[in-house]
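Teaching note: in complex prediction, the entire set of molecules is handled at once rather than each chain in isolation. The prompt given to students was simply: 'Predict the structure of this complex.' The entities are:
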Amino acid sequence: MRDITQHLVELIKSTSSDLSPDVEVTLKRASKEEKDGSAAQGALLTILENVKMSRETDRPICQDTGTPIFYLWYPEGRSQRAFREQIQASVRIATERSYLRPNAVEALSGKNSGDNTGVDFPTIHFEEWDNDHLKVGLLLKGGGSENCGCQYSLPSPEFAGSRDLAGVRKAVLDAAYKAQGLGCAPGILGIGIGGDRATSMVKAKEQLFRPLGDQNKDRELDKMEKQLHREINELGIGPMGFGGSTTVLGVKMAQLHRVPASFFVSIAYMCWADRRKIMTIRDGNVTIESP
Amino acid sequence: MATKLTVPISEDEIRALKVGDQVLLDGVIFTARDAAHKYMIENFVRGTCPDAEKEIYEVLKAGLKGSVLYHCGPVVKKHDDGKYEFIAAGPTTSIREEPYQADVIGHFGVRAVIGKGGMRDKTLAGCKEHGAVYLHAIGGAATLIGECCKEVLDVYKLDFGVPEAFWKIRVEDFPCVVTMDSHGNSLHTEVQANSEAQLQKILAK
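The expected output is the structure of the full assembly:
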């Protein structure tokens, strides 16, 4: 079996330095919608200039290269253990080459491992599939935005959130208000409805891979995504929390089965630097694409 | 037009700044984030400076007076000649330093703190009392700000790890916006209050 370490290093470089076109186009549009000369518009123009510079120099868009979260879809018979070793080797190389900041610190002592490996670090999700090729997704999830993520258990007496889509809406609005500009707004919200506490958040983060302009196959959720996108922008928090009309670039939701007793709403806040790429390896041919 | 600030910065220059002003910063400044702030408080502000830490205390006392603390955990490259270079160096979330910031500003005579997301009442009061401002850099604009970091002059407490160490750097035309001034005004408080009113309106629909 071919070692994919070097391809993974390329995937990390691309994800860290080359923002996906859907996000960049949305940021550009937003910069035209903010008031001329406002701090909000200034922030977006600086962001766009930075995106261009990072792409030209292969340097990280953001110094917080976050938790590298890998998703592997692989054909039957391939070894998860071998993939895990190659992923760990790839983050070590990427750290040496300054594509990643050494970001793995021991929870209590704060001691930095220096190479982005550690206990359950980086994060890896495996999924065997029917295809005979390999697909690897990578999300670089920064800490500032991760700290704005949260989980609600409905019903919520705090904001009268009922156990239905109306309650989900209130939870998401509450989370967006509480985040203010702290997660490097304008952000993207991935939302998992249902599941248990763990699966709900995994589902929320998976939503961050969806193209910003896509449609949810669930028509009710699609409508709610668009409504929340509009309503959160009406909060006026704006880029960086400077005030303005662009607080989020997108809202993406999915639901999971839950036990009757639980109703979780998990919200993954992603910063504007929504760094995610997908690599496909088929018959030795490697392509890296934006979702 | 942006106001040019050059380290060392005087109290008068700081008092002249208002929320919303754009600033371009020049001079020698220090990065400091979570571990560094905890360290400064425990060893210097509240503590009696253990012998082992005296050297760095002298460096910080001399370097921070009239200067700037930057909440940043950079991506750093070490070249073959031993010199360091900032590859990516955007701001980190400042609010984690809220318990420490005002005391650090007062103790060292810091004139400005650069970060993102803003800070709260204790820091705002500290800025008013000591004549300091909070400067908001653009979160995530790490390559662009890295380009403003012209020179890495030294590093202290590298055992904290690359992101958490004190990096002494020389910056040129570092772009920031004043979001908390030395007169008790905060853009963050204002935006939060407005957004709360908006939230109530949306929920009432």
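Point out the following to students. The longest strand of chain A covers residues 67-75. The beta strands of chain A are 67-75, 123-129, 134-141, 150-153, 187-193, 248-255, 264-270, 275-282, 285-289.
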